[in-house]
Each structure stands twice: as structure tokens, then as C-alpha cells.
From TrEMBL:
Annotated signal peptide: none
PANTHER family: SLL1037 PROTEIN (PTHR42941:SF1)
UniProt xrefs under Gene3D superfamilies: Periplasmic binding protein-like II
InterPro entries referenced in this protein's UniProt entry, alphabetically: TRAP_TAXI (IPR011852)
Organism: Massilia phyllostachyos
Transmembrane segments annotated in the record for this chain: 25-47, 347-371
Lineage: Bacteria, Pseudomonadati, Pseudomonadota, Betaproteobacteria, Burkholderiales
Name the record gives this protein: TAXI family TRAP transporter solute-binding subunit
Protein keywords: Membrane, Transmembrane, Transmembrane helix
Amino acid sequence: MKGKAAVKRAVTRVRQFSIVSLRDLLVASGPTLLAVIAVAVLAYIWVDPAPPRKLTMATGQFNSAYQEFGRQYAAILARDDIALTLEPSLGSAENLQRLLDGKADVAFVQSGSTADDAAEQAGLVSLGSLFTEPVWLFLRESAKVNGLTDLKGKRINLGPEGTGVPRLFRQVLDANGVDAKELTIGELENTPATMALLAGQIDGLVFSSAPEAPLIQMLLQTPGIRLFNFTQADAYTRRLPFLTHVVLPRGIVDLGRDIPSQDYHLIAPTATLVAREDLHPALVGLLVKSAGEIHGKAGWFQQQGQFPSPKYTEIPVAREAERYYRDGPPFLQRYMRFWLANLAERLWVVVVALAALLIPLSKVVPPIYVWRVRSRIYRWYGELRKVEQALEATQMEAREAARDGLLVRLDEIEDSVNHISVPLAYAEELYRLRSHINFVRERVRGTIDMHGRAVTK
């Protein structure tokens, strides 16, 4: 108990001799602080909302490169506590539709799947091209196909209409003067189509995929199955501008077994990461950063750092993605974790709002604080004035009887003043008040007049 009492006395002593009154300061600045906090919270929430922690990505068919890359994106985003839900699909056409329907936030889309004006009107943006997707035409050797005109009457699987391959390959056939109706076209998905090719139920199948796809790797090494060589690849790129000419080098699959045994010329659209235009800007940068980690390495058809790229896409590139490709990641994200950097970047908005509010309010708080401290002193001048007025209103013959009551009142005022706690900066005014109390006391006693001159009796 004694210890608590000592602590209490020490705290009281600190308050009595402090330079600033914390209580008065808090009361004077309280409304201002509440207004500042309210504005800061509104600015934080309304001006730039926090990024969502969940995203949905439309990928591709089972065993496709899209599916494998989707898993890699999910693993990278998980480091920053963002859950990426992967939604399998038939391919580009279905992915585009899911984006338009709001069922996916981001998706893999093949170049040539849509026109730039149509994508812009639909509210879609590109986050950059990721990799080339060569057109792989695998044929049974027994089919004896040397040119695309030899495909007439053959059983060729192009895949479901929800993929980008049927539309793409029909354009290739049309460039060769071949009507797609002259072929027996299948619509099997990639895995069952591969089984049908190996079983001899079809003569060939068409993929458009990155070479990392497991089915591509397998078919390139399967005896009796050969890859069609697009020897006129340069001409295709002139006729169909969204295509590029790539070369599959001899021995790239297996140098020891010399697979393939020659260079193959292929035509290739590019895979693009497409998002809805309302995707949070911070997530755009994070996805582009993830794309660089996944697709930036050297590969069969690309050099180190060639992808991701804002080129090779007919869909308008998002402004945040363009900024990332031009300037790199935001300054803070180079040294901080994503969420911490995003919080710091968003706080700049709050700082601006605070500055706009604090500058004018800073001129209001000091006068309020001064008034609160001085009011505790000045109110007693009103009491002193009442004592003087009572003295002046008393007749001369009755003043002797009234003095005792007025002196008692002055003692009460002095006792109350002695308990006033003010900061040291205002101690001079407190002592001035005490001297004025003594002045009034002497007047009541009749030793001085109202001007402070001694009274001669």
C-alpha cells in the first residue's frame, strides 16, 4: 500500500511540474484526432482498396502445359498468402468466355483467339505473352502425309471447339486451299485423342502447346509417330500475322538417341495471360512478376529473358503491366514482402489526406489548448471581482462587520488556487493570481486602497 501511495505521489508531482498538460492537450486535440483518423480510414478504404486474397485462373485440359503452368502460378502466389483456384477448361475459347462471364479473374489465351477491339470492348487486358505454342501435327507414318493437301480424306483430331486449335488449324488449311470438310475431323480431348492415335483409330492429331506438355514429350519419342515439318513456316507467318516461325532443333529431346533426327520448322501462336480489366493493380504486378519467374528461362524456342513480354499479343496490355515491363517492380516490392510493400504504398494516400487535414487544424489546436489551461486561472479572477464588488457595495460603517466574511471567502479562493495544476509554462500566471488574491485581501483589511496605496488611519 505504501508503495502504491508513493507511486501516486510521484505521478502527481510529475503532473504538477510538467511543461505540457497532457490532459488538456488530449481534450483540445481530441476532436481533431478523431477527424484525422476518420479521414485516414476513409482514404485507406475508398481510394485504394486492399487486393483480394483469392483468385480464379482458367487453365486448360488434363496433361496440358496450361494445367502445369497453372500449378506453378498457384505455388508462387501462395508464398504471398494468395490462394489461386485452378479451373480446368477445354482451352482458349472457353477461357475467354469464362473471363467474359466473370467466372475467372485470369486465364491462358492463345494469340489469334480474339481481335484487339473485341477484347477491349469486352473489358479484357493482357498481362503479357508467356511462351510460344507451336502447332504440333503428329501423324502415323502409315498415313504418308508429305503436305497439308495430303490430309484430304484423313481422320485428323483437332480437339473440342472450346479450344483454340480448331479455329487456328482451319485458317492454316484455308491458306493451303484445303476445305476442312474434306477431312474427317475429330473433337476428342488431348489425352483420349493420343490414345486413339496410338491405337490407329485416327491418322493424326493437332496440338498447340508448349513443349513441356507430357503428351508432346511422349509423342516425340514414340516409334511409328512422326511430327509434320512446316517447311513453309515463313510464308505462314506472312499470311497469318499472329503466328511466328520457330525451329525444333535436332537432338533437343534426346541428344544421345538423336531425337528428333532433323530440325523441324513449326508455326506458333503465343500463349497470353489475359485478365479482366478490374483486376487489382497490385495483383497485376504480382502476376507479371510470377510470369517472369516461370517463363523467363531459356527454352526450346526462346532465349533467356525473352518472355514474358508485352509483345506478340493482340489484346491491349494493362497499364500496370506495361509499367512493370518498362520500370521493373515497384520500389518497395524490391525490398519488402508483397503485402507489407502494398500496405506502405497505400499509406501514401493516407499521408496525403492527413497532411491536407492537419495543416489547417494545426492552427486551431494550440489556441484551444492555451484557452483550456488559462481558463482554470482566469475563472478565479471572476471570484476576486465579486469580493471587491461586495466590499464596494457595503457602506463604510458596515464594512468592519463584513470584512470577516470576505476574508473567509478569500481564504477559500486561495486554498482552491493552491490546488490548481498548470504546466510550468503557465506558472507565472498562477503566481500572479496568488499575488492578486493577497492584494484583494489587503483591500478588505483596509490597509490599501483600490490603487494599492497605503491607507492612513
